[in-house]
Write a structure and sequence with these properties.
heterodimer; A: about 200 residues; alpha/beta; Aconitase, domain 4; 7-stranded mixed β-sheet; B: about 475 residues; 5-stranded parallel β-sheet; about 30% helix; binds iron/sulfur cluster
Chain lengths: ~200, ~475
């Protein structure tokens, strides 16, 4: 997994609540057996017409946002299906950070497994950042995970909270499985004890 | 005296393998269900790292999302779907994971077959790369959906790093009125708490209305907990639970059964246990529900009408109502019973069990599907299908003009050939009415199985209470 430390990138405004994972990556693209290559299908139904041409009004189709690395969105981002194809599609598109007032749990977890930073901010902060993201080619945010700040175009900065363990893993690009396997002896003894207590399990 | 604990607390604490200084927890996973859509990249990861599946005996795989619901002895026509199913078949072979093949009578939707086989048991931690894993919480287990990286993690280690959740209790007091089903109860709950109402929480459903439900009904309620944003939903195990499980192929037997029941009886929340959030509903207030929009929280009683964005003061909500109505092709203030439908889908992990098919058949009996409507019934598993056929439900449904299909996810998410055409409107017993969920441009109204059957025979959304005999 790639490390996440700092990011300076264009932020695209998606002023909508409940952006669900079906919207982020519609099911017709879930038939892949790979993790890569989903970026061109990210937000497919909002992004393309039926004939495959782009919808010019969709934010990520606008010239100033085509290379966006950050999405700023309203409440409950990533709700619905557990598909990890959603963060895979965002990452493949180039999105490395999503800022919202709230995230659905599974999506939130999935982001960290893929080196994407989901940042939760207050409603007031979101309004400001949404305005920033609306500034087109000036919509550049500076994310500093170490210091837990978002630098705004006007020079001000917003600080955010994040679980220290998740932060540690993201900054160091740590693979969860490798870390857990270091605890193998604890898993072994747990299994033995459980076998004695609940043999049917 | 020990602090009173909730059902969730008890399961959580008995599964802690490790707690780090920073509070992060590693929990043991008792059961892992695997399906073809969210597992290929996980098995690939294992292969690349040279890792094995730690406990194939605690794992069960099945293909459900992609499988055709027509005759499948000839294989899967769609190439990508076929490759995905074949990839699963290869992976279960390479890693020694138990698997129900597509032509096996035990094949079906992953959340239907777990309980049906007794693979799902009370007090367990159960995961699957699928958000509706919450279904299994109906047995008093902690069951939740995970992403593909987590699937790989569980395959490799049989554990998961997890942050503890908060406790929430939703109590449904009293008895539900005639004609009101568990689907109406859960839709009413989501309408009340909203799609993010349970975020960060594990919900315990309680109260007389829940206790009186069959296991099938309880599964419907827990299934849609995720639509209320909660990580998991659960119901305390009781005699109904034990009676359902007894004799199931993978349930404990003999002396172990006695031991297990004794343990399961210790699981219900203690008197005085604390909940971080409480919601109470009165069952008698619940009317058959139907969704009007593109989020499960966009729900009204069937006697109601679509909302009027002009009446909404919050600009975000107003825009969202306008967007949903436009997508659904509905005008503000339209009475729900005036909404004509083109298709009916009865099935899914929410409502694809025997009780659901019985409910649909009870309404269909002696009636005919309206000429303008195509209606399909997709049993949740091969065993549900078999039982329905033994009860003659398939004949009743076919005589009424319903299409009787092979088991799978089908038009719940339209990854196989069953889908809505752009602009088509469907009364569906599934769980998500998101834009394009049942096919690009398709319009979904979530309802109970009897309401879906009522819509099929009248050609429009209807109050089933007027049809029930
Ligand atoms: S029936 Fe629908 S919700 Fe259930 S597992 Fe299948 S696709 Fe998911």
């Amino acid at each position: 997994m790639e490390k996440f430390t700092q990011l300076r990138g264009t932020a695209a405004p998606m002023d909508m609540i409940n952006i669900d994972t079906d919207m982020i990556i519609p099911k017709q693209y879930l038939k892949t057996i790979k993790r890569t290559g989903l970026g061109k299908h990210a937000f497919a139904e909002m992004r393309y017409n039926e004939d495959g041409s782009e919808k010019p009004d969709f934010v990520l189709n606008k010239p100033q946002y085509r290379n966006a690395q950050v999405i700023v969105a309203e409440d409950n981002f990533g709700c619905g299906s557990s598909r990890e194809h959603a963060p895979w599609a965002l990452l493949d598109f180039g999105i490395k950070c999503v800022i919202s007032t709230s995230f659905a749990d599974i999506f939130y977890n999935n982001c960290f497994k893929n080196g994407i930073l989901p940042i939760q901010v207050t409603h007031e902060q979101l309004r400001e950042l949404m305005d920033d993201a609306g500034k087109g080619s000036n919509a550049v945010l500076e994310i500093d995970l170490e210091n837990q700040t978002i630098g705004r175009p006007n020079g001000e900065s917003v600080s955010f909270e994040i679980d220290p363990h998740r932060k540690h893993c993201l900054i160091n690009g740590l693979d969860d499985i490798g870390q857990t396997l270091q605890q193998a002896s604890k898993i072994d003894s747990f299994e033995e004890q459980r076998k004695a207590a609940t043999p049917w399990a | 005296m020990a602090t009173p604990r909730t059902l969730f607390d008890k399961i959580w604490q008995s599964h802690l393998v490790d707690v780090q200084e920073d509070g992060s927890c590693l929990i043991y996973i008792d059961r892992h269900l695997v399906h073809e859509v969210t597992s290929p990249q996980a098995f690939e990861g294992l292969k690349l790292a040279g890792r094995k599946v730690r406990r194939p005996d605690l794992t069960l795989a099945v293909a459900d999302h992609n499988v055709p619901t027509s005759d499948r002895s000839k294989g899967i026509a769609d190439e990508e779907s076929r490759i995905q199913v074949e990839t699963l078949e290869k992976n279960v072979k390479d890693f020694g994971v138990p698997y129900f093949p597509v032509l096996d009578v035990r094949q079906g939707i992953v959340h239907i077959i777990g309980p049906e086989q007794g693979f799902t048991l009370p007090g367990m931690t159960i995961v699957c790369g699928d958000s509706h894993t919450a279904t299994h919480g109906a047995f008093g287990s902690l069951a939740f959906g995970i992403g593909t990286s987590e699937v790989e993690h569980v395959l490799a280690t049989q554990t998961l790093p997890q942050a503890p959740a908060k406790n929430m209790r939703i109590t449904v007091e009293g008895k539900v009125p005639e004609g009101v089903t568990s689907k109406d109860v859960i839709l009413a709950i989501i309408g009340k708490i909203g799609t993010a109402g349970g975020t960060g929480h594990v919900v315990e459903f309680a109260g007389e209305a829940i206790r009186e439900m069959s296991m099938e009904s309880r599964m419907t309620v827990c299934n849609m907990t995720i639509e209320g944003g909660a990580r998991a939903g659960m119901i305390a195990p009781d005699e109904t639970t034990f009676a359902y499980l007894k004799g199931r192929p993978m349930a404990p037997k003999g002396g172990e059964w006695e031991l297990a029941v004794e343990y399961w009886k210790t699981l219900p929340s203690d008197e005085g246990a604390r909940y971080d959030k409480e919601v109470v509903l009165k069952a008698e207030d619940i009317i058959p529900q139907v969704t009007w929009g593109t989020s499960p929280q966009d729900v009204v009683p069937v006697t109601g009408h679509t909302p009027d964005p002009a009446a909404e003061s919050d600009p975000g909500k107003k825009a969202s109502i306008e967007r949903s109505l436009a997508y659904m092709g509905l005008a503000p203030n339209t009475p729900m019973t005036e909404v004509k439908i083109d298709k009916v889908f009865i099935g899914s992990c929410t409502n694809g069990r025997i009780e659901d098919i019985r409910a649909a058949a009870a309404i269909a009996k002696g009636r005919k599907v309206a000429d303008s409507v195509y209606a399909m019934v997709v049993p949740g598993s091969g065993l549900v299908k078999e039982q329905a056929e033994q009860e003659g439900l398939d004949v009743i449904l076919k005589e009424a003009g319903f299409d009787w299909r092979e088991p799978g996810c089908s038009m719940c998410l339209a990854m196989n050939a069953d889908k809505l055409e752009p602009g088509e409107r469907c009364a569906s017993t599934s769980n998500r009415n998101f834009q394009g969920r049942q096919g690009p441009g398709g319009r979904t109204h979530l309802v109970s199985p009897s309401m879906a059957a009522a819509a099929a025979v009248t050609g429009h959304l209807s109050d089933v209470r007027a049809l029930a005999n």
